[in-house]
Amino acid sequence: MERRSISGHSPYEPIMGYCRAVVAGEHVYVAGTAPIPVDGSAPPDDAYEQMRLCLEIVGEALGRAGASLEDVVRTRVFVTDPVHFEGVARAHGEVFRDVRPVNTTVVTSLMDPAWKVEIEVDAMLP
């Protein structure tokens, strides 16, 4: 089985020894993706905008893997407070309304107090 690693721009990848995504056979696994802007600036304050940024980063990683957001079969969403759920769910629905992957959403703390959301994604190559 072919295995290919795809790096991203997270400063945590070299520290923790992981990559943004792994292609294993026909499967694409995207690591937990936080709202970290490419330029290293602070993330947006709004949970909806943070989720949109996370999904942009995920979409870019999937593209480099040979897949797209339309190929997603599973999402795992982590929010820091239930109050953020509505905005996060709206952003998720805008992207995945027609794709309809399975989803789990969990309330938990995240590594950076500025982050309100993080997402993991599994996809299949087309």
List keywords for this structure.
single chain; 126 residues; alpha+beta; 60s Ribosomal Protein L30, Chain: A; six-stranded mixed β-sheet; 29% helix
Low-confidence stretches: none
Mind summarizing the main beta sheet?
6 strands, mixed
Helical residue percent band: 25-40%
Helix/sheet category:
alpha+beta
Q: What is the CATH superfamily label?
A: RutC-like
Determine and state the CATH class.
Alpha Beta
The CATH architecture: 2-Layer Sandwich
Report the strand count. Answer: 6
- What's the overall geometry? globular
Rg, alpha carbons: 14 Å
Number of helices: 3
CATH topology: 60s Ribosomal Protein L30, Chain: A
How far apart, in Å, are the first and last alpha carbons? 17 Å
Main sheet: which strands, in order across?
1-2-3-6-4-5
Average pLDDT metric:
97
- Spell the H/E element sequence: EHEEHEHEE
Beta-strand share of residues:
25-35%
The structural domain count equals 1
Description:
The chain is an alpha+beta fold. It has a single domain, classed as RutC-like (60s Ribosomal Protein L30, Chain: A), CATH 3.30.1330.40. The chain has three helices and six strands. It has a six-stranded mixed beta sheet, covered by helices on one side. Strand 4, helix 3 and strand 5 form a beta-alpha-beta unit. Helix 2 runs parallel beside helix 3. The longest helix has 19 residues. The chain is globular, with a radius of gyration of 14 Å. The mean pLDDT is 97.
Give a quick precis of the structure.
29% of the residues lie in helices and 29% in strands. The chain is built from three helices and six strands; from the N terminus they run βαββαβαββ. α3 links the parallel β4 (72-79) and β5.
